[in-house]
């Protein structure tokens, strides 16, 4: 499934946080937007839940 949400391609340089848009241009700075997939729950630690399940307290 394709996401309709787009994000300013230059937000890291021009904004404090991602600027989302449904159009081709950032409504804030006018830069081109790029498509973005829904963010994973925790991109930095994909196995965190699994690891925590193995490390249950009380065992
Ligand atoms: Zn922008």
From TrEMBL:
Q: Which GO terms describe its molecular function?
A: snoRNA binding
Q: Which residue intervals make up region (Disordered)?
A: 33-59
The UniProt entry, under InterPro entries, shows: H/ACA_rnp_Nop10 (IPR007264), H/ACA_rnp_Nop10_sf (IPR036756), Nop10_arc-typ (IPR023532)
Tell me the SUPFAM superfamilies matching this sequence.
Nop10-like SnoRNP (SSF144210)
Q: Which GO terms describe its biological process?
A: pseudouridine synthesis; rRNA processing
Q: Which domain of life is it from?
A: Archaea
Keywords in alphabetical order, please: Ribonucleoprotein, Ribosome biogenesis, rRNA processing
Extract one GO cellular component term from the record: ribonucleoprotein complex
Q: Is Disulfide bond found in the keyword set? A: no
Q: Which family does it belong to?
A: Belongs to the NOP10 family.
Q: Function of this protein?
A: Involved in ribosome biogenesis; more specifically in 18S rRNA pseudouridylation and in cleavage of pre-rRNA.
Recorded protein name is Ribosome biogenesis protein Nop10
Q: Tell me what gene encodes this.
A: nop10
């Amino acid at each position: 499934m394709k996401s309709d949400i787009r994000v300013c391609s230059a937000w890291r340089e021009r904004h404090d946080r991602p600027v989302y848009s449904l159009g081709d241009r950032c409504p804030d700075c006018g830069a081109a937007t790029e498509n973005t997939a829904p963010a994973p729950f925790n991109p930095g630690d994909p196995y965190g839940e699994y690891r925590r399940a193995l490390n249950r307290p009380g065992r």
